[in-house]
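Predict the 3D structure for this chain.
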Amino acid sequence: MARVLVVDDDPRLVKVVASLLRRHGHQVESVPNGELARQVLRRGDVDIILLDVNLPDINGMSLILQLREEDDTTPVILLTVRSEAQDQALGLQLGGDDYVPKPFNPEVLLARIEAVLRRSAAGASPGAEEAHGDTMKIDSVLIDFARRQVTRDGAAVRLAPLEYALLEFLAINRGRAVSKEELMLRVWGTSRGVSRTLAEHISRLRRKLGDDLIVTRSGYGYLIPAPRRDRAATTP
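Done. Predicted structure below.
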């Protein structure tokens, strides 16, 4: 059961979404504008936000940027009538975890919500500590699997839950090129429809942790290179 905050000024949409989520055991709170959303978020008990881009008092894109600048990493799914690729890309670049154009199929929205929630769960991925110990050092980046914390040059780096999940899976598979399909399935729970989301999350990780941390395998996927002494044996 998750605590879902719906930020939308369309009462009919809110009613449909809230009914759907409650039928599946989630708690739902709704507000019609950004200021009330910020008041709710200050309590610190929201698990995921469904955020309309066109709010009466603030653009949803601006709101998510403000939240990320304040180190609020609550997962956000953006809801909007704008379906253009550039709008979707901007929402993800600013810190969104997924993007659902309106009108949407309620069951598809539910699946997207549950996929994001799976990856923002508090526990580390199974096998992380067993495979690599409690921590992994990659150049200037240190990943603490037990605490789900990341530092760069000794300074803490705040990652959104899906950013951490993606980094963790690539780190666990260090030295192996992981296909886009495998990453999408492992992190988002589906191998369809989130390739742009994957690319934006990779871009955000590079901005936070360095351009050289994650290498692109053109036409295939991504990898974190193996330590130098092992690269001769692991390079395809």
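The chain has a mean pLDDT of 84.
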